[in-house]
Write a structure and sequence with these properties.
Distance between the termini: 24 Å
Oligomer: single chain
CATH architecture of the largest domain: Roll
Number of strands: 8
Shape: elongated
Largest sheet: 5 strands, mixed
CATH class of the largest domain: Mainly Beta
Number of helices: 3
Structural class: alpha/beta
Low-confidence stretches: none
CATH superfamily of the largest domain: Urease, subunit C, domain 1
């Protein structure tokens, strides 16, 4: 997927794969809530705003009356202090809208060294949680 494809969808020159229609967008940066559509191409957001995209092979998700927010980023958490394995840790964050977290694996390194760090990294890679480094 190229940026050009996303740009073409945003400009109305190409069709999205999916549109999320009429949701209330929660902008966590500006603290605004407003109605808009979201155009998706190959699993990526291409456009947020008013859209006439409909029909064809386009999947339409009706979000009218619902809130839509981007995946949230956990900014400071020590996973080893949760006493959860990495899969359960990821489930806990993902179930609450958190899709990314920084992780230094400090606690795992102190207890288990590089072997423990590598194990935890591999466990997290099997989940949809994105680890920021």
């Amino acid at each position: 997927m190229s940026r050009r494809e996303l740009i073409d969808v945003a400009l109305g020159k190409a069709e999205p794969d999916m549109v999320i229609k009429g949701g209330k967008i929660v902008d966590v940066c500006t603290k605004e809530v407003y109605r808009a559509d979201i155009l998706i191409k190959n699993g990526r957001i291409a456009y947020v705003g008013q859209s006439n995209a409909e029909g064809g092979h386009l999947k339409v998700l009706d979000a009218k009356g619902k809130y839509v927010t981007p995946g949230l980023i956990e900014t400071h958490l020590h996973s080893y202090e949760t006493h959860l394995n990495m899969v359960e840790f990821a489930k806990a964050l993902l179930s609450r809208g958190t899709t990314a977290t920084p992780e230094a694996f400090y606690g795992m390194g102190v207890v288990s060294g590089m072997k423990g760090i590598k194990f935890c990294m591999e466990e997290l890679r099997r989940t949809p949680l994105r680890v920021l480094s």
